[in-house]
Design goal:
2 copies of one chain form a homodimer.
Chain A (H helix, E strand, L loop, with lengths): L1 H26 L5 H39 L10 H40 L4 H34 L3 H40 L11 H38 L6 H23 L8 H27 L3 H25 L4 H9 L4 H34 L8 H14 L3 H24 L3 H50 L13 H42 L14 H72 L9 H37 L1 H6 L4
Chain lengths: ~700, ~700
């Protein structure tokens, strides 16, 4: 019982630090009226979106909760305590979505405050501006991982049943699916439309207050990159914990024993190490923000390794599981560095794509696609290798069982996600300083402040590519662990019905193979639906922007006192995003159920595997290619290959626009889609066993 | 012994028909001197490329043959008759590459003749022009499938060992890998460079004789779309036969029994039916060429179904295997129709992408990518379903064995590829009439002839998209069958060493999983390498075209008597293509060997599966997206969405250029890469069993 209590204490500590950081940020001065006005508009827009999104989600969650109560894990008309079990699962599901929503709300609340403060601080220098951006983001990091650990531990403590944490995890995934995909559609609709009419057609600068979509664009940064990303990583973190808890408790003979405790202990240490890392983050006046962000990450990593090592030694955990955890963490960091190679403008890929742009946009796309394809290999190899190593070193801990090695893999996933609070802090820093840059421009705070926020923004972009690669890989390893958890769940059910248990999923079994191939298609269809959603939505918004420039007199010329109707653009992005995300989300869930009812457990094993394989491939490709195009454009804008206004620049802008929905809508949403499918499969395993065609 | 003899007779019959068709084509008139001159240039360029390519390949094949002799299937220092066995495998390997090379050479010889005749005939009407184009292409179809069936049967007859046909198949694959990838790089280098400088920069029409790259472009059509495509389908056909023969002989207890005979019988009927279909193909004056091509395909399909049904009844083959074969064929046709939906300009996807182009090239790319992603699903589902159905209906033929159902799947692949001679005829028709169009333009044969060849060319494009979807799906099913053959081979070896045999490949086994994830990365890396090759090569050629326009006086203005140095562009394309394809090919082979030596048979099972999953996904995506962009551009050029010269047109051209290496270089080469990896794995199985790390 010690470790659940420790987990709860560490989570509460994280909340306390988050509150302290929030207080610190809110104490920073805001004097400029214009910034306060625009900041309020952004905040209001973000709130509006969140409220509408959460309302829609509430309906969705309610419907699913009822279905869970009736059907899962066993139909309610089933004997032996189904009612209580189903009720707990449904409640855990609701709790998962509520905890995630709360963390998102808190993070965004502080982010939309910090952007104003960071903008104003930029007039005083890079140090205060950076600190506000970073600490504002860190609130999100602390809130997300604090809620994740707290929620999971409470569910475990109350039910004493790790498989209930899968219900909690499913709640988190449902929310993440909608938050990430909906936020992703919102942000890219606004971004693309604002650029298309503003920069390309009219030639007015980015973040120009005349542009009717400019506030929507800034709102998008918050709902997509702050709230969406937070929900995504909340989801991955909970999923990695749940998978490890299910397998750990199976190893402990169904009790909270030494292995279950180890999972909670490591997770608590991860959050603790991130908290220290966040509090230690500093920058000197004139210092390098990228360096500051990376240093805190390395510090956190170091603390985690040392403390978990000590804990393992003192509390007698198995050192081999510890080694598996560290392997996961190290591979995660290495994958981050590889993503950086492919998306950093100091490295050949970005520079070659920028160079290719001189021959026209087609070459920007072809070369970017090629480097994007190349970039997936190191990450895939890293994931495969860490799974193989974690398995190999843990496979003889328990004789004649594969639970030990599956648990080893799940601990590698826990390791990879251990420092996620730090990762989220770095990641949320990006949109805050991006917004701050916008506010500096719109508030007219001067060239020096613009230069400073530009530098902060650029560091945010670099770090974002790295953390995205990290997040996708972590999700990949987590889903592998979830596959193990699914098998373990299914076997429990099979054994309880006196049926033969599965030793695994044989590729040569055609139901498995059927699932594998069909599963491989789902992430492609899912991303296509989201991207087409962005396309359709951007069309609507472009029409609205044109209308405003045509109808509002003096807007184009920037006549004082004439402001565009920002609210209409925010409305279009909001309504459109919510309309477009539903079919994609429903498709993912329904296809999982269909495959399960057609081919049963075996087909689902294949289906999830196909999902992982093609999902990782596409997610890594799209995120990296998108990041690469973004930075190739920036590289040209910095004066290379002809600089701003050249043909190469026009071509690079095309690449950047293509990359936008790749990297911010489809790519990172695929994680969530895979996790959702895995969790739907896990909690519906009983149904598939009872009713399936083949 | 009856059926091998029948196969040989039918193959020889196909050669006789091919010879008759060649005679018919060569008897058609050529009077126009200019066309004869340019036609000779194209022919010469194509020959030069083929000679250089084959020389390079000869070295490659010789090295691999020596390695095979020393190492495969068992190291030569191994006891029990390795020397003879290895020698036969090496000879079969050489035979496979030689047969494929010969078929390619024959096909291209006739194609480069038929293009001139078809161009001249266009002055007389659509009927003679179509017939020459089609019959010229049909020579390729007859030659390819005739050689494939003849070679495979001879190897089987001589060695009485079906696994030797895998060696033959590997030879065919090696050639295909180089022919498809090399030809693909050649053709797109020339195509993109010619368009970029000619159409985009200088605004001169396609196929304008002033363009130094125009002959290289036409040569490219022949080496990429005729020779390369032929080698690709030769490879798939042989591979499907080999896989079915290996499994059939295993079912027949190692003899040429009823199942082995059935494979040969069906293959012979497929070739026979295609021959009839080819001879029946007709078009009325003023008729629809697309309809004519499709009608012959349906006639062939019908004849195949009826004759194999009769043969099954008369010769007492198992009707369930017949059903599996027909399932494969029907699903293949359905997948072709789906590809058509996504690439036909009468359907919504192409029209929507054309419409999106009005907002700029980024939207062309985003929407095209989205529809490309969507298009993979029906094909993947079809492949998965046909494998599942074929398995299900054949699984109880032999009690307690999985050989029957694996054989069932391999028969579905045989069915899908049964009408491949017809498919190749349709496919080779495309580049012939495309070239004819070029010759009409360059020879100045007038507007009416241009209109006719335009119509023929457009039919070629439509049919090409369909046959490409068909070819990829067929390759997919074949590789699944090869996976079965690999397992069967590995188990023979394991049994002979007294080791435990494998029942399958368990996804939860981390070596399998390791292979799976790594294997999924290979097609991405492979396509990236090819596309970057095209990029680099096109850069060189664009520089050369610029040089000629700058240095050759009067060229730009079209002064009479001034001709560009066509040969230099052909040289650049040739040298570059051969230089760029080697690393990609070697990467595919070496990675297979590495994974095998690291993780053994289990890892290879996963590796091949990962290859299939991501290979199918990427190949279908790239082929369909490429075809879609091509037709969206044509749709705009036909006067829609603003028509030629509009912004939408410029954007659609960008899409088309991106699609070029997608659909003609990377996409269709992935098939071959997967087959090569499968065959390397199959014939190296013994080595992996003897030496592997995990």
């Amino acid at each position: 019982m010690t470790w659940p209590i420790v987990s709860i204490i560490v989570s509460l500590l994280a909340f306390a630090v988050a509150y302290w950081l929030y207080q610190w940020v809110s104490k920073q001065p805001t004097a400029n009226k214009e910034i306060a006005r625009i900041g309020a508009l952004i905040r209001e827009g973000a709130d509006t979106f969140l409220v509408r999104e959460y309302k829609l989600l509430a309906i969705f969650v309610a419907v699913v909760a009822v279905l869970i109560f009736i059907l899962l894990p066993q139909p309610i008309w089933h004997e032996d305590g189904s009612v209580a079990n189903n009720l707990y699962t449904a409640l855990a599901y609701i709790a998962g979505s509520v905890f995630s929503a709360l963390a998102g709300k808190i993070g965004m609340f502080v982010a939309t405050l910090a952007n104003m403060k960071s903008a104003e601080a930029a007039t005083k220098g890079i140090k205060p501006s950076f600190m506000i951006g970073f600490r504002g983001g860190a609130v999100m990091g602390m809130a997300v991982v604090g809620s994740s650990l707290l929620g999971t531990t409470i569910v475990l403590l109350l039910t004493k049943d790790a498989s209930m944490t899968l219900g909690f995890s499913f709640g988190a995934s449902s929310l993440a699916l909608f938050a990430k995909a909906g936020g992703g559609i919102f942000t890219k609709t606004a971004d693309i439309s604002a650029d298309l009419v503003g920069k390309v057609e009219l030639g007015i600068p980015e973040d120009d207050p005349r542009n009717p979509a400019v506030i929507a664009d800034n709102v998008g940064d918050n709902v997509g990159d702050v709230a969406g990303m937070g929900a995504d990583l909340f989801d991955s973190h909970v999923a990695s914990l749940s998978a490890a808890l299910v397998l750990g408790m199976a190893l402990d003979g169904g009790k909270i024993g030494v292995n279950t405790s180890m999972v909670l202990c490591y997770a608590a240490i991860g959050l603790f190490a991130s908290t220290i890392g966040v509090l230690l983050a500093r920058i000197k006046e004139g210092g390098d923000p990228t360096g500051a962000l990376n240093t805190s990450t390395y510090v956190t990593t170091g603390i985690f390794v040392v403390l978990t090592g000590l804990a393992t030694w003192i509390f007698g955990f198995n050192a081999l599981y510890w080694a598996a955890t560290i392997i996961g963490l190290v591979v995660g960091v290495v994958i981050g560095i590889v993503s950086d190679y492919f998306t950093n403008d100091l490295r050949p890929p970005v520079q070659r794509v920028a160079n290719a742009s001189k021959s026209g946009p087609a070459f920007t796309i072809i070369s970017g696609t090629s480097y994007g394809f190349l970039s997936v290999f190191p990450a895939l190899f890293g994931i495969a290798l860490s799974a193989l190593l974690a398995f190999t070193i843990t496979q003889n801990i328990v004789p004649d069982s594969n639970l030990d090695s599956l648990f080893g893999i799940s601990m590698a996933a826990v390791g990879m996600l251990s420092i996620v609070a730090m990762i989220i802090s770095n990641d949320a820093y990006g949109p805050i300083v991006d917004n701050a840059r916008g506010l500096v421009e719109m508030g007219g705070l001067g060239e020096e402040a613009l230069r400073i926020t530009d530098e902060l923004d650029s560091a945010g972009n670099t770090v974002k590519a790295v953390t995205k690669g990290f997040a996708i890989s972590a999700a990949g390893l987590t889903v592998i662990a979830l596959l193990g958890a699914f098998l373990s769940e299914a076997n429990d059910l099979l054994a309880s019905k006196g049926m033969e248990i599965l030793t695994g999923f044989d590729i040569m079994d055609p139901t498995v193979f059927f699932g594998l191939i069909v599963g491989a298609g789902i992430p492609a269809v899912f991303s296509a639906m989201l991207m087409l959603g962005v396309d359709r939505n951007a069309e609507r918004m472009v029409a609205e922007i044109h209308r405003q420039f045509d109808e509002i007199e003096g807007l184009k010329e920037g006549k004082p006192g004439v402001t565009p109707e920002y609210g209409r653009c925010i409305d279009i992005a909001t309504v459109g995003a919510l309309r477009e995300l539903i079919p994609a989300g429903v498709m993912a869930i329904v296809s999982t159920l269909l495959v399960g009812f057609i081919g049963g457990i075996e087909a689902i094993g294949g289906f999830l595997t196909g999902n992982i394989v093609s999902g990782l491939l596409l997610a890594l490709y799209m995120s990296n290619a998108g990041g690469l195009w973004d930075n190739a454009k920036k590289y040209v804008e910095a004066g290379n290959c002809g600089g701003k206004g050249s043909d190469a620049h026009k071509a690079a802008v095309v690449g950047d626009t293509v990359g936008d929905p790749y990297k911010d809508t489809a790519g990172p949403s695929i994680n969530t889609q895979i996790t959702v499918c895995s969790l739907v499969a896990s909690i519906s395993a009983g149904l598939f066993i009872a009713f399936s065609l083949f």
